[in-house]
């Protein structure tokens, strides 16, 4: 069997480890061959592929990014499923492993369930917002980078007696902000799931300042203050019409300074959270998911994806996993309240 493998959507640490795990398991355990598909669905639609051998994946576990490239090309563009079938037949590809987040896996689920195509998935998102799996690889690295940023900002904030606002990724969910904020001892954590008022933010900052601390605020890019209707987005849209978020940190900093009298600076962490080497946890999780995806192909579990349940690797329907976002639950938000301010 010849398996086509692709990475699609936003990049994240651990993609290469998935590719390595899948290729090594497939070749060694089952005698499969592999075809690398460049830049996600674009490569399958435009016949941009190449053979993928064991030698091509050696040493990939700790390498960030993806050797296959990625894009946000929609699977139903440029001829859609029929064009994909033509390319698969031409290249002798019997099945597809699609590695990606909610958008990628929603497309993969539709191809498998509605079109009858042999597609399985591996969940990837640094936001950790994909339902059906306890964690997605890439998230641990992102939260670790954000935590390190908090630690570094704290030393300069203490030196200059300033308030620092750190903006992290999180369009619809606040897992990075929550986890990094807790790990770094932030005095205010602001996430999309639970809007709070400007006055509450100012109170948390004042409380930390009154105790002799340099206040540190961590905010997810998708946070909307209570009473405000729209997310802060001052970067326009991408070529697919998707709003580019970013700027809530810059929006909050002058308001905090005006309300509290504390000099305040903001920093947007941005794509640093996506880059560089994955943590040990993400390397292991990504490798295990890649190996599991090969077993799903072996069993012809089309429309399924590898997932993490506790410490066990399981399989779930992609359609179920993309049906809802995995939001930060109320109990996690409630437990962090005692740490704020």
TrEMBL record:
Keywords: ATP-binding, Cytoplasm, Glycolysis, Kinase, Magnesium, Metal-binding, Nucleotide-binding, Transferase. It is found in: Cytoplasm. Its cofactor is Mg(2+). Transmembrane segments: none annotated. Pathway: Carbohydrate degradation; glycolysis; D-glyceraldehyde 3-phosphate and glycerone phosphate from D-glucose: step 3/4. It comes from the Bacteria. The keyword Transcription does not apply. Its EC number is 2.7.1.11. Mg(2+) binds at residue 102. It holds the Pfam family PFK. ATP binds at residues 10, 72-73, 101-104. Residues 2-296 form the Phosphofructokinase domain. The keyword Coiled coil does not apply. Its main location: cytoplasm. The record marks 103 as: Important for substrate specificity. Substrate binds at residues 125-127, 162, 169-171, 221, 265, 271-274. PANTHER family: ATP-DEPENDENT 6-PHOSPHOFRUCTOKINASE 3, PHOSPHOFRUCTOKINASE. NCBIfam families: PFK_mixed, PRK03202.1. Catalyzes the phosphorylation of D-fructose 6-phosphate to fructose 1,6-bisphosphate by ATP, the first committing step of glycolysis. Homodimer or homotetramer. This is ATP-dependent 6-phosphofructokinase. The lineage of its organism: Bacteria, Bacillati, Actinomycetota, Actinomycetes, Micrococcales. The gene is pfkA.
């Amino acid at each position: 069997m010849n398996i086509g493998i692709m990475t699609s959507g936003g990049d994240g640490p651990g993609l290469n480890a998935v590719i390595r795990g899948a290729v090594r398991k497939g070749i060694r355990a089952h005698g499969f061959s592999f075809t690398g598909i460049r830049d996600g669905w674009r490569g399958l639609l435009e016949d941009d592929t190449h053979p993928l051998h064991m030698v091509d994946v050696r040493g990939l576990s700790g390498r960030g990014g993806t050797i296959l490239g990625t894009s946000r090309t929609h699977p139903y563009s440029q001829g859609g499923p029929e064009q994909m079938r033509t390319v698969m037949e031409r290249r002798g590809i019997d099945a597809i492993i699609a590695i990606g987040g909610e958008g990628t896996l929603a497309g993969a689920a539709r191809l498998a369930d509605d079109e009858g195509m042999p597609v399985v998935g591996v969940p990837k998102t640094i936001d950790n917002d994909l339902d059906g799996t306890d964690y997605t690889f890439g998230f641990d690295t992102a939260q670790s980078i954000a935590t390190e940023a908090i630690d570094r900002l704290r030393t300069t904030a203490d030196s200059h007696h300033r308030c620092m606002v750190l903006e992290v990724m999180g369009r619809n969910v606040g897992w990075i902000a929550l986890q990094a904020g807790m790990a770094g001892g932030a005095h205010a954590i602001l996430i999309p799931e639970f809007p709070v008022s400007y006055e509450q933010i100012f109170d948390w900052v004042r409380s930390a300042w009154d105790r002799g601390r340099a206040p540190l605020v961590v905010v997810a890019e998708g946070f909307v203050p209570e009473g405000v209707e729209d997310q802060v987005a001052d970067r326009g849209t991408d070529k697919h019409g998707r709003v580019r978020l970013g700027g809530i940190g810059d929006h909050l900093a002058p308001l905090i300074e005006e309300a509290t009298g504390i000099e305040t600076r903001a920093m947007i962490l941005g794509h640093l959270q996506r880059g560089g080497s994955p943590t040990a946890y993400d390397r292991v999780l990504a490798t295990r998911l890649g190996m599991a995806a090969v077993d799903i192909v072996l069993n012809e579990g089309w429309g399924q994806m590898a997932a993490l349940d506790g410490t066990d690797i399981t399989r779930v329907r992609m359609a179920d996993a993309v049906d809802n976002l995995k939001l930060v639950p109320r109990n996690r938000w409630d437990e962090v309240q005692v740490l704020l301010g």
